[in-house]
Each structure stands twice: as structure tokens, then as C-alpha cells.
Amino acid sequence: MASTGCPDPEPKPPEPEPRYRATIRRTAHGIPHISASNLGGVGFGQGYAFAQDHACTLADQLIKIRGERARFFGAGPGDTHLSSDFAYHALDLLERGRAGLEAQPEDSRQFLEGFTAGHNHFLESTGATRLPCAGKPWLRPLGADEMVAYLINISLTASGYRLVDAIAAAQPPSPKGEQSVPPALPPREEAGLASNGWALGAERTANGRGMVLANPHFPWEGELRLWESHLTVPGQLDVYGVSLLGVPGVVIGFNQDVAWTHTFSSGSRFTAYLLKLVPGKPTTYVYEGQERQMTARTFTLPVLQPDGSLKDVSRTLYSSHHGPLLALPGLGWTGSVAVSYRDANLDNTSFFTQFLRMGRATSLQQFQEVFATVQGSPWVNTMAADREGNVWYTDASSTPNLSAEALTKWQQAVATPGSPQAALLAQGFVLLDGSTAVNEWVVEPGARSPGLVPFARVPQRSRRDFVFNANDSYWLANPAQPLEGFSPLHGFERVPQTARTRMNLVALTEVREGGASGADGRFTLEELRATVLDNRGMTAELLRAQVVQRCQGNPTGSARGQAVDLTQACAVLAAWNGRYDTSSVGAPLWRELMGIYGTAALQNAGTLFATAFSPAQPMETPNTLVPAPATGADPLLDKLAEAVLRLGDASIAVDAPLGQVQFTPRGGSRTALHGGVAVDGTMNVVSYRVLQSTLDGPTPRGTVINSTSGLTTDGYVINYGTSFLMAMHYTDSGLEAQALLTYGESEDPSHLNDQLQLFAQKQWRPILFSEQEIASSPVLETTTVTRD
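RE: above sequence
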């Protein structure tokens, strides 16, 4: 062939690899299984998938931590938006986020930058036009430094998160002595999150391998919901579980070698300080006999006006050397005293690294080393099990390190009736004298940050049978080997346990035919699943038979000045099996009776129990119904009469089944629900709480009749409780796991209530973890996303 004389064309250079590439495979219920070749890529895929499901909630929270709510929504009712903005500017989370991003180790930084890139990539896609907040001016791209700031904000859930209004309201008294009005604070038991967590070892499982039960009780609305995902980087990461909305990685879950869960710690994540002010100088306090001037910072913020214009509003906020000033109920800023606080998690930039490396651990020992070296756990107990049947518990939460002298003086003050220390402890505050260096946090080698308790001195326990927690302290993580001798800021020892903790302990320790683990005392996966949703009520198991006997002997009580016939009430309680299923007749009546007594009566001998709590028998005591008085009215029967009338106030019949009156209106449809509240003592909790800062607001409900039981004129309306349920065990060939996310994976109508219906029917779904399980799923939607 003759040559043309023209050179062959140069081969086209290969297309450069994109910086980020991830594959997202969604299986049934919209669960994303995300894979990539590196950590940045899998973070990119997770950020993209999360934004598909919940970008608007994260955008709402970013407005909050940027301090821009008033800019977009006005000052808000009672200046709530403006107060939030001022407080977040005072906490300076954005600057902390910028510094925190620079301090991230390389693996964490790659993942975080990938997550934010994936989130932003979705916002640029056509899919973002379907978001409920599409087109809003506050739906903006996210910076990696803002992601770190958001993670710090999540770390403040047990501290600064609930003090925002108190920070914004802290103002010195006027020249006339007028004080700012302190905001109300929720009771301690309503301010925290709840959960049950079990790790079962070789001695208590049917196959001799590790098993974990995760049962967090979190809000069903707002930013503290959970989101499920599976993350895979071959050779580096293969982890499945849930995280809080907008939090990268997996917080509760498992990999091939270790599984874990968390519960909310009862310890203290901050200390408050009572400052003694210099007379005539309300912004000057005395410290070690010397005058110290508070630091004043004035913030000027734009506030949206009704006509659409912006108006600047300024406020000066103050700090002592401990931290921001607070306005607290009953202890406001006067001419003589003020209150400041120091937060153990305000500088916690290790939050994400903690959970990323937990997910990458290939043994329980390596898992424990993450806690020892990173120390980023903010406010949780951890229960973990490995495939060899070893289990481990720790409360490694960020905790102030006080000297023995400081602790002794505080405990003496708490024991003094009427002291501010005793009053504030009921709100979850440790109040110290801020005028002396004795109460400064002690700097000790090995701590994540100066002034925190180092990991070597936090409560922890390794076992081969079980460890657990249900939101009481670390003390009885395993009752056969109590944990004692730790700082009370970690929690209290040798004190009464809640009814729910006692129910957990009964289920864990009973070995009998018909018991939770059967006659052999070794749990199967089926027994574990059944136990958490069996809805046994501890208070009914302790007292129902005695109450029925007393009631049947004299079925009459008095309430509101009238005699009440208790014949039907007695019969209903006699026939009830003590459980809180939707078909349970008698459960509402018992709940109202216990609600009238209140949670305090369940802790020790008094108006309800005759036998006092004993530290030697923490599971069995208190017990035994207080006997009727020798003469006169029987307080028990009068309270039962009041319970009957309260049900009547809500138009509820004494023999109404629980499912007829306990429900969630989620998604616009009424779904009957099983489960109990605190005074019921069930493991499976469903109740009503407002624990959110998102602007969409909580589920509405009728007029509250009994705040302890949650009874309203609409019945028992549910927006909180059992959220993610996971039961898993390791097997000789791998693992098996089942789960539920009660409120669904996303706000898309197809997934809003799909798992709620499963929960209502006590049906679990299998977790797809192996490649074979995912590839063979009958529901499989695959998307590959890339970005340069």
C-alpha cells in the first residue's frame, strides 16, 4: 500500500480520573450502600446520598451555627431566632471549625472534604430541585470547616446545645437593679436522650460469639434523627450503621470484626461557676482575692423586618475566664453574683476521627486503642462485642477533671438543703464556687484536652458474659462486677436505678423457661429481637398483683371531692398481663396511676414502695407496696380513682386498649403504637419530647393532662423513642443482622412511613451487608457519582 506521507494521528490522551468517584446502591427502604476506592470517595458518596435524603435539615442547622436565623426569618417569637444567633456567635463555632479542620488527621480530612464535596455536588444537580427547601436563599454550599463546626455543635448536645438561650439572655443588671429574665430549662430527665444498649459475650450467646443490641431512643423529628448507611473502601473500611443527621461516617453499627452501640451518658459535660461580683461593678468578679474584669464582646447582626428590609441589632455578651455568662432560673445576674460555665466539648474537634477509626478497627483491642488515643467520644456510653465473644463497656465521654478537694466541697454543698448547688443539680448542673482556683479543672497527662479526665481513669469493664447501659450511670454495667471509685461527674454510684434499667437487668439476668434468654440463659438472635419489643413493664411486674388485691378488697376511691367506683378498674388491672402492646387493656390505667405517683416515687421507699433501695440489691429494690393505713382513706385507691378520672378527661374508657389511644400522626396518618414511658419501666420507649432546634417545629398535640405520663386530650401522642433498632450477631461464616429505623430513611413519601409500619407490627428487616446480599436484593438502584 502506498504511503500518503501523513504521520499517524497522536493517540488521544486518557481522560484524567475525577477527584471523587463513588457508587451508591440503594436497596429496600432506600438504604444506601456506598463504595469507593478511597476515603475521600466514600465520603463524597455518603455526602451525596445524605443530601438526597435530608439536605434541608442540615441547611437549617447551618443557618443556626452561622448565627443567621434572624437574617432569613426575622427575630422570631420572643426573639428566639435572634437569641440563638447571638449565642452561636458567642460560642464562635465557625472559627473553631476553621481551626479544627486544620487539626484533622489526614484520613479524617479526606473523608470530611469528600462528604462536603458530595453534599454540594447534589445541591448543584437537577435532583436538588425536588427538595422541600429548593430555591430558598439559605440553601447554600457547605464548607469542610463548617462541617467541623457542625460536629462541634453535635458534641455540645449534653451541654452548650441546651444553654443557648441562657447564654443569649445573660445581661448585667441595669443601674436600677433590674435583671434580665432567665429562660426556662427542662428538667434533667427531659434534657437528655435515652437508649438501651447491650453487648453479649461468649458465655451468654447461643453460638458463643459476640452479639449486640442497639436501641437508641431519639427524637423522631428535627436534627437529632438517625440516618442509615453502609460504607466500603476495599481493604480500608467496611462499616454499616447509623449516624445523626449530617454527621459523616457511622456512629452506631458494626464491621466484620467489632460491633458497638451507645447510650446517653448520665455524667456531666460542663461545670457552672458562681461568680462573686465586686460591689458596684456588675461585670467585675473576685478570683483568688483579686478583681477580674469580664470579657465583653458586642455583636451586631442583621434582622429581617416585616417589610423585607434588614435592620442591625446589637447585643453585648460577657465571659469570665471560665467561659460564657449564663442567665439561669432562680440564679440570675444580680449586683452580687453571676454564673459562668466551662464546656468539656467546646474544643472537641476529634469527634469524627473517633467514630471513623472505630469503624476501621479490626479487633476489639484496636477498637479500645481508638478510645485511648483519640478520646473524641462526646457524651455516650459505649458497649462493644467482637466475633470471638469478648465484650467491653466504657463511659469515655468528655468529663471535667476536678480535684478531690473540689469534689468534696461540691458534694457537701449539694447535701445542704436549699443550696443553689442542690437546686441546680436537679437541672443537671454542677455548680462550683468560681472565686477560687480550687475548682479549676486539673490538667493531667494523657487527656485529650487540658482539664479533662484522661482515658486511663474513665469507667470501663471487659467481660465474657455481658455489659449494658440504660442511661443510669456506669455503676452496674455488669452487676456481678460493679464499677466504683470514679468521679461523680461521670455519674453516681450505689444509687437507685430507674425502672427501665431494672427491666433491662431482669431480662439480662433471668434464666428460666419463658424468660428472655430461655432456660439455657444463652440468647439467640430471635430471643434478642423479641426481648426488646416484648413491652414488659417493670412497675407492673413489681406492684400490679398487690394493687389488684388491695383494690378488689375495697373497690372504692375518692378524687376531686367525689366517690369513684373502682370495680371495673380493678377487673381491668386483674386481667392485664403487664405489657404495653397495642392490644393491652389496662396499660393506660396503670400508666396514669404510676404517673400520679411520679418518677421520684419509683426510686426509693416512700409513698409507693415499703422496702427501701439497697445498694446490695439494686435490681430487686425498692419493692413491696406500702400497706394501707389502719384507718381512713387509702391513698392508693384515691390515686387510682384520680387515674380513672384523668382518663375520662381525655375521653378514654378504662378498658380502652393501648393502641386505641397511643399513636403517632407522622405523615398525616394515625399509626397505633406499642411501647411505654418512664413510669411504665419498659425497654421499648415511645413518648413525647421536644428535643429539636429545627424551624419546622414539633408535632402538635392536645392539652396536657398529665405531663409525667404524656396524657393529653388527644391521648398519648408520640414523637420520640425507639428510633434505630439493631440486633446482630457474629457467626462462624460471617454475621447476621436485622434492623428498623422507625421514622424511615428519608422524607421522601415512599420512605417516610414504610418502616414505621414495620415497627408498629414488630417486624424487622434484614440488614444487607455482604456483597452477595446486596447484589441479589430485589430492590437495587445504582448510581455512580463523580466530581473533579
